[in-house]
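Blinded run. Sample ID left blank on purpose so nobody reads anything into the name before looking at the predicted structure. Input follows.
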Amino acid sequence: MRVFTSVVLLGALLIASPGLPQTPPAPFGEATHHVVRVDGLRFHYVTAGSGEPVVLLPGWPESWIAWRKLTPLLVKAGRQVYVLDPRGFGDSDKPQSGYDLDTAARDLHGFLAATGLIRPAGVDIVAHDVGTWIAVAHAQVYPREVKRLVVTESNLPGVSPPAPAGIPSEAANLKSWQFAFNRLDDLPEILVQGRERAYLAWIYATKSTRTYAIEPAALEEYVRVYSLPGAMRAGFAWYRVNFSAEGLAQAKVRAAQRLPMPVLALGGDEGVGDALRATVATIGDRVKGGAVKGSPAEGCGHFLPEECPNELAAAILGFWRETL
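Blinded prediction complete.
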């Protein structure tokens, strides 16, 4: 109750944020930037459209613009889109701590309360990558706040099967190397500081199938936000904390709380494929999904919202129609 009370009182502090980028990379279109304070932290978010709300959560190493292509499709379908930068992401605050998923669940609960999105029937949430970790943890702890949940291209700390022992194949290593690298103490910051552009460009090129999907303007924005003080440290912290003994213990406790809402779990056919659906099905009662397939000429890689927005939008809108 203490968290709920504080965020409701702070909800009146919603303000336009003139210091944030006002011209998003195409094809996002109209977007309004806001800041809300939740338990003393500053969270940046973007809104577009009108109608029934839906909340989008990006993954690492991205920010709100990961949804720049999907948002216009949801707005066209009559939805009001809220895109949140979680703590450590984009232009939100980057504190030294709080990157465990129990805290992340409280952050999202606080954001929904402060923005008036806690409703009797819940709100739709769509998430990608680390955003999926956050969305699932929140749905386990606050299930009544979620109407329907869409999660994409991720594993789930403490729930997904462990990686096979031994040296991974070249293809597997390209998909999963960051889980070991990001958890190292200090070394990632030492190697990446001042080389953010090269580091990010390499990640986007090697983990995507449609390598052209992250345009120069989007890359520039990602470089900007991940060059901010503390941004890379915060990104690495999500991995360090949630794959630590304490983080995995938290996940074990949360796993006892099953997901009662309809869940759509999707992976790119050149990404995690059906693995996310299979994982979420172990903790959810109404789970469907599978692999999102691209064209015969090119599949859908890890950065699903950017690589295959049309295919993803079709899957989400179809899921919502089936689960009114």
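Unblinding after everyone has recorded impressions. The chain is about 40% helix and 20% strand.
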